[in-house]
Amino acid sequence: MDKLLTVNQVAKLLNVWPETVRRWDNTGQLSSVRTPGGHRRYRESQVLALLGEPTNSGNQVRCAVYARVANQEHANTGSLQRQKERLITYAVEKDYRVVAVYTEIASGLNENREELAKLIRTALQGEVDVVVTENRDRLAGFGYNYLKEFLASCKVKIEFIETDEKSDYQDELLDDLVDIIASFSSRIYGKRGNKIAKKITQIIKEEISEIK
After folding, report:
1. CA distance 197 to 212
2. Are residues 59 and 149 in the same domain?
3. Helix axes of 18-27 and 79-93: crossing angle, nearest 10 degrees
């Protein structure tokens, strides 16, 4: 007999907020049964299907979700969690089977991202059909086209979602720009590079704040 799970149990399994589970229920992405007391319960098999467990639907698209923020400061604001939930919601609405969720706190210029490396290995092993992410810069600040061609050679396509949360993303792009300035300044000016980078960064931030 199929085990029934509470809202909180489903949220913990899917690593989303309980409110997200209720929203999926209200919009039909998840179906619940009601207890005599009126509480929602969800069939375990349905939840396991979202987690990528084997189902009878062999033709269902296998999806990997990739969410990233530039640093811990952005993660502390809840930006990473909200981004992940938007991606999972998109996959659920498209009836994709989510086989992996990768979340990362790292600059888009960082070439040693562990979660991105795991995503690439998943693609190489033929375990995924589509990668869902917020936009191209979440995957790679530079060299996106190379990554796209590589995934295409593994028969994996990339899909971006629409998002209205521009402020966090703009701040992260600024962080990436700061990293570029610091890197080039240290190469050109050596030890003096850090002081020069800080001055340039401050000027850029002041100009951007005036534009906003």
Report:
1. 22
2. yes
3. 20
Give the range of the structural domain holding residue 205, as residue numbers without chain letter.
Answer: 166-211
Q: Do 18 and 75 fall into the same domain?
A: no
Phi, psi (rounded to 5 degrees) for 93: -65, -30
pLDDT of residue 200: 67
**DSSP code string of 16-85:** S-HHHHHHHHHHTSS-EEE-TTS-EEEEHHHHHHHTT---S-TTSPEEEEEEEESSHHHHHTTHHHHHHH
**CATH number of the structural domain spanning residue 19:** 1.10.1660.10
Indicate if 106 and 32 belong to the same structural domain. Answer: no
Q: Which pLDDT tens digit goes with each residue over 78-135?
A: 889 889 988 988 888 888 888 899 999 998 778 889 999 999 999 999 999 999 999 9
In angstroms, the CA 8 to CA 18 distance is 6
pTM of structure: 0.64
Nearest-angstrom CA–CA distance, 42 and 10: 8
CB-CB neighbours of 50 under 10 Å: 21
**Domain match, 4 and 42 both:** yes
pLDDT averaged over the chain?
80
Which CATH number covers residue 125?
Answer: 3.40.50.1390
Please report which confidence band the pLDDT of residue 197 belongs to, taking 50, 70 and 90 as the band edges: low
Quickly state the pLDDT bin for 147 (edges 50, 70, 90). very high
Rg (CA), the chain: 20
* Amino acid code (one letter) for 26: N
Structural domain tally of the chain? 3
